[in-house]
Amino acid sequence: RCLKPGTQIRRLDALPVGSLPAAHPYEAWLGSIGCATLGAMRQLPRAGLQRRTSRQVLQVLDAAYGNTPEIFKWVVAPLQFQGRIELVERIEYAQAVGRVAGRLIEQLCGWLAGHQRAVTQLVLLLEHERGRHAREPSQVELATAAPTRDPAHLMRLLQEHLHHLKLAAPIIAVTLDAARVQETAPVADDLFPERGGTPQDRQRVLEIILARLGHDRVLAPQPVADHRPEIANRWRPANTASAAGSVVEGVARPCWLLEKPLLLSVRKHRPWYGSPLRILQGPERIEDGWWEGWALRDYFVAEDNTGVRYWLFRERYGHWRWFLHGVFG
After folding, report:
1. What is the pTM of this model?
2. Same domain, 224 and 287
3. Residue 26, domain member (yes or no)
4. Where is pLDDT greater, at 196 or 124?
5. N or C of the chain: less Cβ packing under 10 Å?
6. Predicted confidence band at 293 (pLDDT cuts at 50, 70, 90)?
7. Is pLDDT larger for residue 298 or for residue 193?
């Protein structure tokens, strides 16, 4: 309802002081001096009212009467990309989705470049036929370890996922949703490219391998700060492994560590493994694990008649037995 200026002022003057949220903390004081309405509040000296209350009370009061502009905070919606393509014909095989999804990925990467953003997670929804036998959309999630907006890399990842996907029903529409987007600095190509590729290139190769073989089949070393080899050597899924921990440097360590040390026979005071082993290096003494059973060992690098090198240790207690613990490349 529209009111004339004079009528609007009279209506506002009759409103109680509590109509202004900023005046709520001072209602008791205003009531004690007989100021119960907005009109009465306007009659008070402004300087004294500001000292007894706050500057915000005067600002809200002036804005209510239109004497000062009311400033609102703009609501900025978060940047979000979602693209959808309805198919002219049904798709019955997951591999055929690639061409349609490729168009959406191209749109996404253009949107990312325009907003100086990169994506770390995508969700592809494959919508099935509606009706009596309607099904929930099939979902394909793409996750990258590092932010990217490279359409070729995203397309390779998608193809690997689609290769293992079996559709429960024909597809009638494809939707691409950028689930996780973050700001990124502009990337400038180097004048002299790094030999062997950049860290981003190597990360992309790892992501493709993970998509092809599965996250539980690709492992990365996760060293533990412990002198005992069987404790220090740990493996974690490559997509969850953190930065390498403490690693003993300057000492020989085999590429292949046996899960359980193999007891060796001794002939003519020499360890034997298919042939007599010749000691090349050692001993490296390890004494650790007193809190859960001492590991008292002397480690050696040995070689057989064919040139294969092994990592052995000899117990320093009991029968002083020899064990094979690892094989060098």
Report:
1. 0.49
2. yes
3. yes
4. 124
5. N
6. low
7. 298
Q: Are residues 90 and 40 in the same domain?
A: no
Question: pLDDT by residue (tens digit) across 75-92?
Answer: 777 788 899 999 888 888
Tell me if 117 sits within 8 A of 79, measured CB to CB: yes
* 292 and 225 within one domain: yes
Per-residue pLDDT at 296: 84
Q: Tell whether 122 is covered by a domain.
A: yes
Rounded to whole angstroms, how far apart are CA atoms 177 and 136? Answer: 16
Asked, for residue 191, whether it belongs to a domain, the answer is no
Structure tokens at 69: 């502009």
pLDDT band at 312 (very low <50, low <70, confident <90, very high): very high
Residues 309 and 225 in one domain: yes
The string of pLDDT tens digits covering residues 164-178 is 888 888 889 999 999
Surface-to-core class of residue 46, CB atoms within 10 Å of its CB (0-12 exposed, 13-18 middle, 19+ buried) = exposed
Q: Is residue 212 part of a domain?
A: no
Domain count, the chain: 3
**How many other C-beta atoms are found inside a 10 Å radius of the C-beta of residue 22?**
15
User: Do 220 and 236 form a contact (C-beta atoms < 8 A)?
Assistant: yes
Q: Do 174 and 225 share a domain, yes or no?
A: no
228 & 315 share domain: yes
283, 327: one domain: yes
Q: Distances from the Cα of 237 to the Cαs of 16, 164, 260, 272, in angstroms?
A: 66, 20, 22, 36
Q: How far is residue 20's CA from residue 15's CA, in Å, rounded to a whole number?
A: 9
**Count, residues in the chain:** 329
CA gap 252, 174 in Å, rounded: 54
| Residue range of the domain that includes 328 | 219-329
